[in-house]
C-alpha cells in the first residue's frame, strides 16, 4: 500500500522521572510536535527507549498519546526478536488505538532474508493497520536487502520501510523495487534531503524532536519542487543533526530537549547521560542554529 505517511513523523523520545514515565512532559512534547506541524509521531521506537520499558508503561503511553495526538497519526513501535511477541504487541497496539505499526527487524537472532519475510507477513496478517518495516542493521545485526524488501512490499498492509542502513546505494535500489507498491521513509536525518530526492514520502526523524517546523519545511520545499530552498534548509540543519548523533540515539536529542526547557529526565540504563564534551558540542550547535538554550 502507498500513501500512508507524507511529511514528518517524529520518532518521539519518552520522558522519564525516577519513578516512571513523565506524562506531563509527554503531553508538552506532543503539543510541541502538533504546533510544529508534524504529520505523525512514532512512539515506543528506538528513540522512545521502549526496550527498557515495562509492558504496563508501554500500554499507558499508547493510551495517553492516543488521547492527545490531535490530528497527527499515532505510529507505535512493536518489533521484537520473537515473532510471536511482535505479533502480540502489534495486536495490542491496535486494540489501544494505534494508527500504524513500526516493526523493527528481529535483533540478535540474525535471521535469514526469508525469515524477515515471514516475520513481516505474520505481523501484517495479525492486524488491520498499516505496517512499516524498520531496517537499522547497525542496531539489529540484520539487513533488509533490496530484493527482500521488494518481496515484503507485496504483503498486505505493508505501508513502507523506514530505511536506516546509512547505505544510499541500497536505498536507491530499494526505492526502485518498491515504487508504487509501498513507500520509502528516511530513517537517518543526515540523509533526509537525498532520500526525498529519490522519492521518500516521509521522514521518520529524530531531529524533529527539536525543530519539527523546520524539518517539515524541508519536506514541503522538496514536494513543491523548490530544491534551492530545500538545500538551504538542509545545509542549516545538517550541523544540528550531526550534533544530535554525537552519541548513540537518544542520548543527545534527550539532552537537547532538556536544554530547551523540557523536563525529560535522563536515558534509562544501560544508556547514560551525555558526556560533557558532547553536551557542550550539542549546546553550541543549538545556539548557532538559533535555538534558545536554557542550560
List the helices and strands and how they pair.
Layout: E1 7-11, E2 16-17, E3 20-21, H1 23-35, E4 40-43, H2 55-68, E5 73-77, H3 83-95, E6 100-104, H4 113-126, E7 131-135, H5 137-140, H6 146-152, E8 158-163, H7 168-178, E9 183-186, H8 192-197, E10 202-205, H9 212-223, H10 227-243, H11 251-259, H12 276-289
The CATH superfamily is known as Aldolase class I
Q: What is the radius of gyration computed over CA atoms, rounded to a whole number of angstroms?
A: 18 Å
The top level CATH class name: Alpha Beta
Tally of individual helices: 12
Taking strands numbered 1, 2, ... along the chain, how are they ordered across the largest sheet? 1-4-5-6-7-8-9-10
User: Largest beta sheet, briefly?
Assistant: 8 strands, parallel, barrel
Low-confidence stretches: none
Q: Please state the second-level CATH architecture.
A: Alpha-Beta Barrel
Helix coverage percent? 40-55%
Q: Kindly identify the CATH topology.
A: TIM Barrel
Average pLDDT, rounded to a whole number, is: 97
The shape, in one word, is globular
Strand content: 5-15%
Helix-strand makeup class: alpha/beta
Can you tell me the number of structural domains? 1
Question: Multimeric state of these chains?
Answer: single chain
C-alpha end-to-end distance: 45 Å
Number of strands: 10
Amino acid at each position: 500500500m502507498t500513501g500512508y505517511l507524507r511529511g514528518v513523523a517524529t520518532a518521539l523520545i519518552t520522558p522519564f522521572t525516577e519513578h516512571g514515565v513523565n506524562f506531563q512532559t509527554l503531553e508538552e512534547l506532543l503539543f510541541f510536535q502538533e504546533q510544529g506541524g508534524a504529520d505523525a509521531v512514532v512512539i515506543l521506537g528506538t528513540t522512545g527507549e521502549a526496550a527498557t520499558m515495562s509492558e504496563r508503561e508501554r500500554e499507558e503511553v499508547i493510551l495517553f498519546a492516543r488521547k492527545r495526538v490531535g490530528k497527527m497519526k499515532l505510529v507505535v513501535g512493536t518489533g521484537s526478536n520473537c515473532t510471536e511477541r511482535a505479533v502480540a504487541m502489534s495486536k495490542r497496539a491496535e486494540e489501544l488505538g494505534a494508527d500504524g505499526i513500526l516493526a523493527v527487524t528481529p535483533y540478535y537472532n540474525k535471521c535469514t532474508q526469508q525469515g524477515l519475510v515471514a516475520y513481516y507477513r505474520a505481523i501484517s496478517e495479525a492486524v488491520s493497520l498499516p505496517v512499516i518495516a524498520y531496517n537499522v542493521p547497525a542496531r539489529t545485526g540484520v539487513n533488509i536487502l533490496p530484493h527482500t524488501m521488494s518481496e515484503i512490499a507485496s504483503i498486505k498492509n505493508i505501508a513502507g520501510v523506514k530505511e536506516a542502513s546509512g547505505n544510499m546505494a541500497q536505498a536507491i535500489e530499494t526505492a526502485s523495487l518498491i515504487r508504487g507498491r509501498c513507500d520509502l521513509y528516511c530513517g537517518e536525518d543526515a540523509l533526509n534531503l537525498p532520500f526525498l530526492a529519490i522519492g521518500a514520502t516521509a521522514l521518520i526523524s529524530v531531529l524533529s524532536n527539536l525543530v519539527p517546523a523546520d524539518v517539515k519545511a524541508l519536506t514541503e520545499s522538496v514536494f513543491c519542487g523548490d530544491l534551492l530552498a530545500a538545500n538551504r534548509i538542509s545545509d542549516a540543519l545538517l550541523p544540528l543533526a550531526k550534533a544530535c548523533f554525537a552519541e548513540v540515539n537518544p542520548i543527545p536529542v534527550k539532552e537537547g530537549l532538556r536544554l530547551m526547557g523540557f523536563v525529560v529526565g535522563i536515558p534509562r540504563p544501560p544508556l547514560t547521560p551525555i558526556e560533557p564534551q558532547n553536551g557542550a558540542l550539542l549546546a553550541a550547535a543549538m545556539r548557532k542554529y538559533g535555538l534558545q538554550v536554557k542550560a
